[in-house]
Amino acid sequence: MVDIIESKRDGHRLSKDEIEFFVKGYSKGEIPDYQASALTMAIYFRGMDKQETAYLTDAMMHSGDTIDLSSIAGVKVDKHSTGGVGDKTSLVFGPLVAACGAKLAKMSGRGLGHTGGTLDKLESVPGTRIGLSEQEFIDQVNRIGIAVIGQTAEVDPADKKLYALRDVTATVESIPLIASSIMSKKLAAGSDAILLDVKFGSGAFMKTIERAEELARAMVEIGNSLGRDTRAILTDMEQPLGCAVGNSLEVKEAIMTLHGHGPKDLEELAINAGAISLTQAGIAPDLEVGKKMIAKAIADGSGFRKLVEMFAAQGGDSSYIEHPEKFPLAKRQIPIYAKASGYLHRIDSLSVGVSAMKLGAGRKTMDDVIDMSAGVILKKKRGDQVEAGEILAIAHTNMSDISDALEMLENAFVINDEPVPYTPIIHKYIH
Q: Which of 78, 159, 192, 348 is catalytic?
């Protein structure tokens, strides 16, 4: 192991055998944290080329179980988002592509930070099971075309250990380490085609579009080199996605979007991402046909019916999907008012996300309990004209001491005199 650390420290390429030796040894506890830390720091400073990154991904992917989805008929598609504020895309995109005949077999994670992850949003519907067995997962996708479950402990154990280590050794932001972490999980989950939604901006992990593109290209190269059709879109997280931030609030917004009444940015993202997945699945010949198919699944209600079907299949009380007014509302709803008239130039995503967490919608540690009803509803979006005294947002909470959260939310909005040009949600498509 010392030789491997020295080699990377001095800027040399690591071989497939060296990388496999490290991943296997560290996964089994035979290589101590201090040596693994030294290697990740060497990688942070020296980088890895495309081949090394592919070797690392492959070794991590095979550090535990891989899911065999070959008994599911047709092309299996999957989507991964690098995370953001108000990102409920999977709850809209998934049912729409399944309604169009694609097979979506998706393993998701929990959220740590601003708000819950996809699993937390699913669990805001009472009774929903996210811990299906592998066979139940496969049977459900074969039966209704969609299942969204939690990652099992046996999938990619190397990533769990390495991620925890990177988190406490200031090596999280290395592109080869991020790319191999994300792609090893996605590849282990067994889908044939992967769409990566890579966010950039204030509320995203990647703050600039340049870094987001670097990460996206690295992941697309890994996926394609390991035999999966992998594509990416770069999407704007300079403001929250949609208007709802917080678990059950986001589920309700996903339902509205499937009824055709959702925020324009969320609908635009779901239609475009859905069209890409339909072309990957061979169901649509090109993106324009794919977009029309997804738009039709919104218009005819088949996407919404698929969402109801998915929750029912996973034990959830689907009456909450059919009657979203059943979701309990937080006891306190506090409006945030505009301090000036003009145009809304900016809604700082990170500030909105952290304030939602302080209102109870997210978790600082994995043991924190989320308040499913807490969060923020935006009443205005970037570019909107506002009058002084108009409501910009409403904070939803059951907590009493929230002065910090409200102050942060107030400061998230920047109003100027000049109109703001429209910017699309998707900035680039990489394939």
A: 159
